[in-house]
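Z., the sequence and structure:
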Amino acid sequence: MSLFKLATIAVLGLALTGCSTMDRLANVGQAPALSAIDNPTTMAGYQPVSMPMPAAIADTYEANSLYRQSAKGFFKDQRAHKIGDILTVIVTINDKAAIDNASKRDRSSTSEAGLGGALGSVLSGVSVPIDPAVEFNSGIQDSGTGSVNRSESLETMVAAVIVQVLPNGNLVIEGRQEVRVNFEVRELIVMGVVRPEDIQADNTIPSEKIAEARISYGGRGQITDVQQPRYGAQVMDAILPW
């Protein structure tokens, strides 16, 4: 490999790892910093949810009545229902999958063709063994097995904030939680769309009632950093064909 190629690879490696390496060196001996509390709607990449909505019902009042037609209930409760309200999401994930497949295929064939022995005996009158002049043998045998055994479990709770109210009354929620233990930060992110009717009387909602749910549980810190391959290994793994 030429010196120019080596220099190019070195420069690319420094460009990929420069910022991350400098940040790590600046924080040697310090615990990972927690993220600042920000308004989710002002964060880069935020997109308001757009879904098919029924026609809105206009508020109408009957004479001498306190009830309005679009009201969900006559008596007001303390469950979250407007932008900025907080509710608790009970995250319960118990996924288990076990799949075992096996397949086998076997085929064989034999073909023989001969004329030399028979033709020689007729022409010369001499008895000769009648052996096949051409013989074909073929066989195909395939076998395969596959097995999947996966189990995932997560049980926790996180407070989420209503960031948007859709025209049909459904609520868009987003919740973030960070817990730092020694030099490791555990992050939990929950977002999705919920119905006000699914919010329980204690202002909680189970995660299986969240539509378009996006749940992320991970971490950052020294342990997570050690578990990840280096940037160079990730780049080589992505571009090498073998």
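The two ends are 19 Å apart (CA to CA). The mean pLDDT is 77.

Let me know what you think.
H.
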